Amino acid sequence: KQEVTQIPAALSVPEGENLVLNCSFTDSAIYNLQWFRQDPGKGLTSLLLIQSSQREQTSGRLNASLDKSSGRSTLYIAASQPGDSATYLCAVRDQGAQKLVFGQGTRLTINP
Amino acid sequence: DAGVIQSPRHEVTEMGQEVTLRCKPISGHNSLFWYRQTMMRGLELLIYFNNNVPIDDSGMPEDRFSAKMPNASFSTLKIQPSEPRDSAVYFCASSLWGHANTGELFFGEGSRLTVL
């Protein structure tokens, strides 16, 4: 059974820093992996999706990498801003499966 | 596109009452998912549909919960009778699934349910 873990559960950094959020999964036979952002009281917003054949995806200041063999993905945020404060969730879709398995999320706070 | 649309955004009801949550998926998407989110349990998948057909309802907590998708543009999640432990945020999400599609999931803003 696929399990997704995100450590740490919470992270607080000063504005302007580059930072990395971690996601690990137990079964490497995945179809793709999706990173989401959730603001308080809001729904989940899709940030990046990486197919199993890809190593990374970039969108603006965000870069997500995937290392299937080690069961890890990272979300890199460059030049962090207070507006980046939110909970970030990663979710894995297994090969042959449609539903996502979610991690518990990392709550990120960027201090001005 | 307007995205996934859910209603109501907030619902406060009394124990024993029937609750109906509604969802309009993104036009052209063929898969629809219902999730529940609480602080204690995180995000839980309740049920999902492909082409309006329920595929996996193993996450539906009990018989008090039911979901329907009468057509490609509308789905409901019903709780009858509601209980205080059903208080949560209920999310609907949709995706395009099939050959050469990634299945990228898009969420609505959620329906916050409080059962007194």
Give an overview of the whole structure.
The complex is a heterodimer of chains A (112) and B (116). Chain A has 112 residues and is an all-beta fold. Helix content of chain A is 0%, strand content 58%. Chain A has strands spanning 4-5, 10-14, 19-25, 30-38, 44-51, 56-59, 62-67, 72-77, 86-94, 100-102, 106-111. In chain A, strands 2, 4, 5, 9, 10 and 11 form a six-stranded mixed beta sheet that branches. In chain A, β4 and β5 form a beta hairpin. The model of chain A has no long low-confidence stretch (mean pLDDT 95). Chain B is built from no helices and eleven strands. Chains A and B meet through β4, β5 and β9 of A and β5 and β10 of B.
Keywords for this structure?
A: 112 residues, mainly beta, 6-stranded mixed β-sheet, 5-stranded antiparallel β-sheet, 11 strands, B: mainly beta, 7-stranded mixed β-sheet, 4-stranded antiparallel β-sheet, globular
Outline the fold blueprint.
The complex is a heterodimer of chains A (112) and B (116).
Chain A: E1 4-5, E2 10-14, E3 19-25, E4 30-38, E5 44-51, E6 56-59, E7 62-67, E8 72-77, E9 86-94, E10 100-102, E11 106-111
Parallel strand pairs in A: 2-11
Antiparallel strand pairs in A: 1-3, 3-8, 4-5, 4-9, 6-7, 7-8, 9-10, 9-11
Chain B: E1 5-7, E2 10-13, E3 19-24, E4 31-38, E5 42-50, E6 53-56, E7 65-71, E8 74-79, E9 88-95, E10 106-107, E11 111-115
Parallel strand pairs in B: 2-11
Antiparallel strand pairs in B: 1-3, 3-8, 4-5, 4-9, 5-6, 7-8, 9-10, 9-11
